Amino acid sequence: MMQGSCMCGGVRYEYAGGFGTITICHCSDCRKAQGGAGVIAAPVEKEKFTWTQGEDLIQEYESSPGKKRAFCRACGSPLYSRRDAEPAVLRLRMGSLDSETDVTPAAHIFTLGVPPWAAIDDNLPHYDTHEPGRVSDAE
């Protein structure tokens, strides 16, 4: 069982499943939403995800049609994104995890046009858009 929370601790969750392909998205929306070089996110099964505290503090913002980004209304911590077209999946923000996990990102996505200050300096594969095999939009 993995646990996570927002920065202020007002929102807490547990997750009893595995992760899909973890990516680091560098699209401009993710950079703006995270305030950094990108977002590390993993698809998780919504049915194995439980809010244990503060679900009423979660605010969703529709960043593009059918795409919602969720954050804590008290501290602003990003928690997940979701698509109306994929109701069984949340794209969990890995930085919200409190529990340690040994999973690692598989690739950098949306790397075309990454600004110099967001330089990528590891050996993971880089893709101009999504990683091969994925059809939905950015994180």
TrEMBL record:
Range of residues in the leader sequence: none
InterPro entries, per the entry: CENP-V/GFA, Mss4-like_sf
Entry keyword annotation includes Lyase: yes
Alphabetical list of SUPFAM superfamilies matching this protein: Mss4-like
Keywords in alphabetical order: Lyase, Metal-binding, Zinc
Full protein name: GFA family protein
Family: Belongs to the Gfa family.
Cited Gene3D superfamilies: glutathione-dependent formaldehyde- activating enzyme (gfa)
Domain annotation CENP-V/GFA: ranges: 2-118
Superkingdom of the source species: Bacteria
